């Protein structure tokens, strides 16, 4: 699978909305050692607190790739960013892009990259030749993060679990299925750009056979209960062939994201539905635990809610931001699967 060279220079452009910089922020949080600095087009735009530098300085400091670290409505590449991309190419930097519009769609950038012998990475369209999924049993162990809804922390949970499992001596690797995750990991497949028939096959390719004591932690997407994204979620579930599921949820969310008319499922409903779907390709699949976003309540309320969920289901429940995820990692190790 194609690997994006690290370390990175994070391009923040001139965005003013902190949420628009979520890709760059995710890279900085999870791979700080791979971030040489940031480049901005306006001094009052969003900052990650990294050193501001130009492309020449970044190259001299060891950067190998400039990452377009922002998202916008429609995923279009702003035309006034193109000159910055050209400057990076001329400085000898590869350029990685998580927007829907691809760098490879622009002949002038392709020609310049060829001239300076650098690569352009369109993360949403990076993938090997794919086959449809087979469901054939494969070696190794796999965890899939699933959710009651989209945007409930599946990527964060997956990365936190990778770190916690490694800390206790387990072999664990994060497998990215979204553009931010791909840039954090340096490789992966953006599932939202895969033709529907090939989603399960893409996940099989992303997490192939491995050692019996090796765990792949596969980043989930969407929710089986979200009308917009359930198809993607189902393909992920079947392709993952997961031994364990981790259920992600935001405490107190009133309805499905962006769909005020769509009810939120109960945890019981969501667990049962996900386990039933996963059993098609992994008949012995189990629930490992819960990862909740409890930011809407105080710490005492959060602890009480997590304790109640843990009692009800008999598995660990945590908020990885507030309380860490080491208990869940240890529980997985203790299962001895």
UniProtKB/TrEMBL annotation:
InterPro entries: DgcN-like, DgcN-like_C, DgcN-like_N, P-loop_NTPase. It comes from the Bacteria. Residues 132-328 form the D-glutamate N-acetyltransferase-like C-terminal domain. Residues 44-125 form the D-glutamate N-acetyltransferase-like N-terminal domain. It comes from Rouxiella aceris. This is DUF1611 domain-containing protein.
